[in-house]
Write a structure and sequence with these properties.
Oligomer: single chain
Mean pLDDT: 87
Number of helices: 5
Number of strands: 5
CATH class of the largest domain: Alpha Beta
Shape: elongated
Radius of gyration: 18 Å
Strand content: 15-25%
Distance between the termini: 53 Å
CATH superfamily of the largest domain: Ribosomal protein L11/L12, N-terminal domain
Order of helices and strands: EHHEEHEHHE
Length: 139
């Protein structure tokens, strides 16, 4: 049984991984086949084009690897839901949008497996806090 020698965490645009930095510079020192990872990642994320996908890569001592795909970061899901490019630089003074409770719940439904919350209500509060820190009001 091969043992894990390195864990690498990356955030890569879905379906658009290339051997260029940051992917190549993160994976090169681990000694794995970068082209192989790029092909497998792009194939696995083709359906989610446009999203940033966090990936946890486990590298084994025989230079093989496997990876786990996570859900996009909550901030990215909020930006996508509001169809804006970025959050506010001054979240208390400048508001960039408004999320409804229903939209918050849609994000929670998508993110729940990655959140550290026991109940959907606690998960709602996590997403609402992220939104507020980006200058997004909740109605």
């Amino acid at each position: 049984m091969a043992r894990v020698v390195k864990k690498i965490k990356l955030q890569i645009p879905a379906g658009k991984a290339t051997p260029a930095p940051p992917v190549g510079t993160a994976l090169g020192p681990a000694g794995i086949n970068i082209g192989d990872f790029v092909n497998k990642f792009n194939e696995a994320t083709r359906e989610q084009m446009g999203d940033i996908i966090p990936v946890e890569l486990s590298v084994y001592d025989d230079r093989t690897f496997d990876f786990i795909l996570k859900n996009p970061p909550a901030s990215r899901l909020i930006l996508k839901k509001l169809d804006i490019k970025k959050g506010s630089g001054k979240p208390q003074a400048q508001k960039v949008g408004v999320l409804t409770k229903a939209q918050v719940r849609e994000i929670v439904d998508q993110k729940m497996s990655d959140l550290n919350a026991a109940t959907p209500e606690a998960a709602d509060r996590i997403i609402e806090g992220t939104a507020r820190s980006m200058g997004v009001d909740i109605k």
